[in-house]
UniProtKB/TrEMBL annotation:
GO terms for biological process: intracellular potassium ion homeostasis; intracellular sodium ion homeostasis; potassium ion import across plasma membrane; proton transmembrane transport; sodium ion export across plasma membrane. It comes from Jaapia argillacea MUCL 33604. It is found in: Cell membrane. This is Cation-transporting P-type ATPase N-terminal domain-containing protein. It is a multi-pass membrane protein. Keywords: ATP-binding, Cell membrane, Membrane, Nucleotide-binding, Translocase, Transmembrane, Transmembrane helix. Residues 102-175 form the Cation-transporting P-type ATPase N-terminal domain. PANTHER family: CATION TRANSPORTING ATPASE, SODIUM/POTASSIUM-TRANSPORTING ATPASE SUBUNIT ALPHA. The chain crosses the membrane at residues 151-174, 186-206, 346-369, 389-410, 866-889, 895-915, 936-964, 988-1006, 1027-1048, 1060-1076. It comes from the Eukaryota.
Amino acid sequence: MDSAPPPYPAPGDVESQQEGYFHRITIEDATLPSRDARGRGDVPLNREFHRTLSQHEGIDVVNRIPVEFRTLSIHVETKASTDQGKAGETRRVAVKDLVSLDWHKISADETLQRLNVSPKTGLDTAQAHRRLQTNGKNVISPPKSNIIRKLLEWVLGGFGSLLLAASIVCFIAWKPLGNPDPQASNLALAVVLLIVLLVQAVFNAWQDFSTSRVMSSIKGMLPSDVLVIRDGIQAKVPAADLVTGDLVYLVMGEKVPSDLRLVEVSGDLMFDRSILTGESEPVAGRVEMTDENFLETKNIALQGTHCVGGSGLGLVILTGDNTVFGRIAKLSSMEPMRLTTLQREILRFVVIIAGMATLVAILIVILWAAWLRRTYPDYINVPGLLIDVVSVMVAFIPEGLPVAVTLSLAKVANTLSKHKVLCKSLSIVETLGSVNVLCSDKTGTLTQNKMHVENVAVFDTVYHPESFRSDIARCSQEVAANLSQVAAVSSICNAATFEAGSSSDEKEKGAVGDATDVAILRFGDLVASAEVARHRWREIFRVNFNSKTKFMLKLSQLSPSAPLNSGLVAPIAPWDKFSPYDYLLTVKGAPEVLLPRCSFVLDPAGGPPIPISSSSIRDRLTIIQEQWARDGQRVLLLARKVIREGLIPKEVHRMSDEFAGIVEGCNKDLIIVGLVGLIDPLKPDIKHTVATCRRAGIRFFVVTGDHPTTAVSIAGQAGIITDTKLVQHAYDLNPDDKAYIPPYDPDTTDHQSKSIVITGPELQNLGPSQIEQLCQYEEIVFARTTPEQKLRIVNEFKKRENVVAVTGDGVNDAPSLKAADCGIAMGKGSDIAREAADMVLLDDFSAIIVALEYGRLVYDNLKKTVLYLLPAGSFSELMPIVLNILIGVPQMLSNIQMILICVATDVLPALSLCLEQPESGLLLRKPRNVRKDRLANWRLILQAYGFLGVLESLCAMAMSFWYLQRKGVPFSSLALGFGNWPGLDNELLFRAQSVYFFTLVLMQWGNLFATRGRKLSIFQHTPASNWYVFPAAGLALCIGIFFCYVPWFQKVFQTRPIPVEHFFIPITFGLALLFLDEVRKYFVRKYPSSAIARLAW
């Protein structure tokens, strides 16, 4: 027997594969006389090939591709006609190249000859290596980044624009408005603001770089191998190593790695081109040209599109930048940036702070113009007013926040990567922390996707698969002829294949394909050699299993090598009266779908099949199915039919739509060969994962294509359904539109609407009132769903203000993964699923708990960071300016000291809060409401300004005025002085300002330890869980001492040393602040319904 690989993963007859083969030409690639894509002769095969199959790299390009694919040439030409210069010429050349491609116009054999490749053996390794060395990697060149735009984003992002404006104002206040006596302090303030702006820009750039690095690691870690024919065997090679002339297998769920000319296709081969066209309808794959336009013909598989049905074999004709995908990417504009949930929250916070700062600045200008300038003309001049406005900006802006956010996200990304959780966007983790509805696929997500056949039934006689072979051997020839058909159909009607060179042991043979197909193939091979059974039949037409039809179909004819002289070939029986020219139709799929198409069932006692003439016979089959499904088994029906030669017209091409319609018309009056029950065991950690998610306030639903009884059984084993005996059904939903529907309450344990199972067809027939009732259930199993129905489920829950996450790994999960707020794909899933998802779990499903916890933790820690920064870095800095304007006292905190607090002394403690461990109960509370629970809501502002800020400001003011009073300058001589402050010189003022400064620095210690816990006491959430707070607090004081005690800084920043008692007294104030907050937390815990609890942040 020839060892050559089959035309596509499910092999047909070996002899048929040899037809039309030719000897491979051995001419060097560089000198191969050939024709290029335009048909020109004698052109060396020396083209640049770039491409990678990692779907995430395509993300930046995909969204920039024009939507209307079928009028793509028109759009491009119209655009080009209006462009001038080099860009327009580039577009015109690209369009000309696209429309002149002719690979689709020549035959498959001519395409193979043009690229010097044998359809039997493919390229040899040396030949592929030479082409790769000559033409380069198969990757698309990344788009050029706009450096100027990035620089502007880094510099002006967040508070950067305000800081830049403030710095410019300070320069203006220094000169020319400060002439003839410019103040050096104004220049120093301007320079310091520029330094702060530069530091923020560096951190913004670092965050951008870190995100890009994470994305690059995702591309590198996700699978990117393709199955090709090289050296006459099937081999997996990296997509980046593909070269023109490679023969690539296409199977459902994978992404097309380059532009391919289809040379072999199954009847149901379909491509989703929506990634290029925006069109939702799949496009069939054909061997012959269907359109003169290269972009529209069906015999070309375009790079970046997805195979959503069937299988085939394609010849690589264009790679990398030369593909349609790569060419269009060069013509397309940059993808518009979209803000994530966390980015929107930070932007909202920036707008709030900037708005408050602007409002206060305007009020100061109005007060100066309407009152101070007239009543006290010598008090504040124009440069002084500008500096006051800058002071307000500096006081309000927590300059340390961007640094804290950057480092916090980087820490989360690093932690998640260690747990094999990869995110397309770092802040998507925070979205996961807000999820309250999780829709999970079953196979491969809840279960191990390692199926095995548990039971076999012929009619209503049940057999064990391990003993089925010996059972057949003990039977009479007549009985054995019927029973052996189960194994034969299992092997023939199957899309899985055994790997070449794998173990001869049936249980250890390596297999490639869907887990269900692999399990059934192993069963068939256990009874009789699957390879022998397959090679006796030549495949004519095939329709692979998909989530819509829920069956696989295969039309075959006897192979010329079939041993007819030794008797009939399984699954043919004597009563079939089979002719060698007749056809065999084999079908495998869901019993409820195929049973109506069946008219007979095999008799386990031997002889002709039994007509299904009464409901009792169907009921006996249904009883078997329901019994197995209740045990969590997936039940499939195997059927067959002999089609006489004359019913299939020979003149109709087998790859045409007409032929597919003829075969579909024959898919009736089938003979039921048997039932097989398959078990896919739960993942070991799935029960713990489900329980944790449910305790976290997340409703965990199953959305699967399996039978409802099987799905409910698995859901019960996983803990998704509490009691499988009390599950309701569609008929329990009240169709009355006026009926009262109590909303789902996560705080209630005794829900009126507890558990329900709904099938896809039932979902389609539900009315608006019933849908509303369905969405209030705590436990739901959606069974027999199609991709469209899964998408509807996601949208229905999103419509009711739920944050929905979807997990899955298959092609049918892709639409719902993309539509969900957070799509989560399995690392071993299909390319399409990973393309659509926001997050990929490379290892266990249990990693979702880590992502969920850190999603909530990163948001909590950012709230703590904001709360820590606002009292001293905003409110307490604003008060000296306000009092300076309103009651005429000296400004007790200099502008330079305000900046030192924000970007020096407060930064390290703020960063230590980003490293806080989760408080107990983080996964025991309800998910946050993204529409109500904001990063900076009124409760947090009240805590920061009304409680912490007021206490710190009062204490700092008291300490600085007390110091002046001890030096002979009482408060009474300062109040309402408006510049007339007897006894106060600059030296005393500088020391008083330093007292205020150190009082804030030391009271922030109390704020730091108070803010670490939202509700837990410091004795419950001890500092031992985050030792970083201690060195951070100590370094904050050291930084303050450094700037106030080094002579050079004393001269430039006008800082001064302070008496020793002003170090110890503020520490007692910090302890008092911590004590007061502990009292507040106690009442919040003790009386959760009290006014204090409702005001708690």
